[in-house]
Amino acid sequence: MSKPRVKICCISSREEAATAISHGASALGLVGHMPSGPGVISDELILEIARAVPPPIATFLLTSETSVQDLITHQQKVQTNTIQIVDALTEGDYADIREALPAVKLVQVIHVANERSIDEAVRLSEQVDALLLDSGNPNLKVKVLGGTGRVHDWSLSRSIVQQAKTPVFLAGGLHAGNVQRAIEEVQPYGLDVCSGVRTNGRLDPAKLEAFFRSLGF
């Protein structure tokens, strides 16, 4: 199995972006407005960072918008090359986004909770460029849509990887001490990490190095 792609999320500055890339990140997560969770930065800063990131690094806009028109407007403000949709669409569909933003990749987050998450993931995998499996809970009064630092049931994630029609990223509580086991159990296309490479909210070069070293980078 080839080494998984690594997305470092919750990037908060051009300096953090450069540090993540220098350690081996192939994608960066830039967090827009969220109802809860870490790493939120302004759209102006997302645009600044996205413009500074060299190709072929992917820049993911994490957006909590659920209306297709609002999703499109958000991406047009920040100019990332990927949209990470962290909640379910409530208005419009993926085809509408593709028509408006044909060069932008679409990644749908699946908050893995139970067997129903498998069915949801497999169904949506036919409509997006990738899935990202996380440990949030969009059904709470104040939605939790990522950045939890919690591991979910990897057996469910493995079933999704086996059945999905598109590449799958694994997120949720990953760090240098468990990432190899995560790869063995889930066999994802990519990994997404935020809290596992941070200290007091800041990107920690030592934790980054340990994370990538555990992957053989």
Main sheet overview: 8 strands, parallel, barrel
Kindly report the name of the CATH homologous superfamily: Aldolase class I
State the total count of DSSP E strands: 10
CATH architectural grouping: Alpha-Beta Barrel
Number of helices: 8
The CATH C-level name is Alpha Beta
As residue ranges, the low-confidence spans are none
Radius of gyration: 16 Å
Shape: globular
Mean pLDDT over the full residue set: 93
Distance between the termini: 14 Å
CATH topology: TIM Barrel
Helix content: 25-40%
Please list the strands of the largest sheet in the order they lie side by side: 1-2-3-4-5-6-7-8
Number of domain units: 1
Estimate the strand proportion.
15-25%
Structural class computed from helices and strand pairing: alpha/beta
Order of helices and strands: EHEHEHEHEHEHEHEEEH
